[in-house]
């Protein structure tokens, strides 16, 4: 898949698309799912609940790890991209957590396959790219029929402290940023608000910012895509009735004050060009939600940077490069 056109089309096809999400309301077969596996206390391996089961550290910049963790019912992987000269510099670096989009052929390696090593060459920042499931939505689901898929617990309770313990990072909010594309853009907005003290910068590249607008379209979308792709009928937010407290806790537009003092970077497509209808319907919803979010930030007097670009639901590398420079400028310097 081209790095200039990373789309969510396949996962939407798998779930029947937006029209199916509206029609079904995440009901029907989803209602049979069992409660999601809780993240139990106690460590697997080290004090962070992680045990390395595979690794490759031969490349001077890109390090790969795979973990056993009770938060996830299989062994998720991560890539850690180090700045040039990390091994000899002795310096401490800020960290960007870069969250991937949703699709059946997408995982923690997808940004590397798209070109992130080239994009970050010479930049004084560590980039952490974790697994987030085919449609994990950076959440601990309400229900699962395949065992635990607690991505939020894995990332926030286990991975962040593990990274700070194993690499020369600034283990503080001013030393961390979170960004992502599509599902990952939503995850970035969610994590930055819900874990307010952990991130100084948040970036959503075509990431949904409103879960309840248009009769909860994005919430239905999350439920259906997760049910089909990850949870064997389980859901992120519950079906046929939502866990309303969970929706509100995750919903960027319901947590506006928690973005105050952060660097906030948003981008969405406006259509035009060779954009097929399916791609455009997806981005229309993203654009509408981001505009709602931006209006609320503006009304609250919270600074943010927003871009509307031609095209559909795609990852725009030139915009990401601009964003990356802003991230590095905002974070504590290496």
Automatic annotation (TrEMBL):
<keyword id="KW-0012">Acyltransferase</keyword>
<keyword id="KW-0808">Transferase</keyword>
<comment type="similarity">
    <text>Belongs to the mycobacterial A85 antigen family.</text>
</comment>
<dbReference type="InterPro" id="IPR000801">
    <property type="entry name" value="Esterase-like"/>
</dbReference>
<protein>
    <recommendedName>
        <fullName>Acyl-CoA:diacylglycerol acyltransferase</fullName>
        <ecNumber>2.3.1.122</ecNumber>
        <ecNumber>2.3.1.20</ecNumber>
    </recommendedName>
</protein>
<dbReference type="Pfam" id="PF00756">
    <property type="entry name" value="Esterase"/>
</dbReference>
<feature type="signal peptide">
    <location>
        <begin position="1"/>
        <end position="38"/>
    </location>
</feature>
<dbReference type="InterPro" id="IPR029058">
    <property type="entry name" value="AB_hydrolase_fold"/>
</dbReference>
<dbReference type="InterPro" id="IPR050583">
    <property type="entry name" value="Mycobacterial_A85_antigen"/>
</dbReference>
<keyword id="KW-0732">Signal</keyword>
<dbReference type="InterPro" id="IPR006311">
    <property type="entry name" value="TAT_signal"/>
</dbReference>
């Amino acid at each position: 898949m081209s790095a200039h056109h990373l789309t969510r089309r396949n996962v939407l096809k798998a779930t029947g698309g937006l029209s199916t999400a509206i029609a079904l309301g995440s009901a029907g077969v989803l209602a049979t799912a069992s409660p999601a596996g809780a993240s139990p206390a106690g460590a697997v391996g080290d004090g962070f609940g992680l045990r390395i089961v595979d690794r490759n550290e031969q490349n001077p910049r890109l390090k790969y790890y795979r973990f056993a963790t009770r938060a996830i019912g299989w062994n998720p992987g991560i890539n850690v991209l180090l700045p040039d000269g990390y091994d000899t510099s002795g310096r401490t670096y800020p960290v960007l957590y870069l969250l991937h989009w949703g699709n059946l052929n997408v995982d923690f390696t997808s940004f590397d396959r798209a070109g992130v090593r080239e994009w970050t060459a010479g930049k004084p920042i560590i980039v952490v790219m974790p697994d987030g499931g085919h449609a994990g939505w950076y959440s601990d689901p309400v229900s699962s029929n395949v065992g635990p898929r607690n991505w939020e617990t894995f990332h926030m309770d286990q991975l962040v402290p593990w990274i700070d313990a194993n690499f020369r990072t600034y283990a503080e909010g001013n030393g961390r940023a979170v960004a992502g594309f599509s599902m990952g853009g939503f995850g970035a907005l969610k994590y930055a608000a819900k874990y307010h003290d952990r991130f100084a910068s948040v970036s959503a590249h075509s990431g949904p910012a409103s879960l309840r607008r248009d009769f909860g379209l994005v919430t239905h979308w999350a439920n259906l895509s997760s049910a089909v792709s990850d949870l064997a009928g389980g859901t992120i937010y519950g079906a046929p009735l939502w866990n309303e407290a969970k929706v509100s806790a995750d919903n960027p537009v319901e947590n506006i004050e928690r973005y105050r003092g952060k660097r906030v970077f948003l981008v969405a497509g406006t259509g035009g060009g060779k954009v097929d209808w399916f791609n455009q319907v997806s981005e229309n919803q993203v654009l509408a939600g981001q505009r709602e979010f931006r209006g609320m930030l503006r009304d609250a007097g919270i600074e943010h940077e927003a871009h509307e670009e031609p095209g559909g639901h795609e990852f725009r590398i030139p915009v990401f490069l601009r964003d990356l420079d802003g991230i590095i400028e905002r974070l504590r310097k290496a």
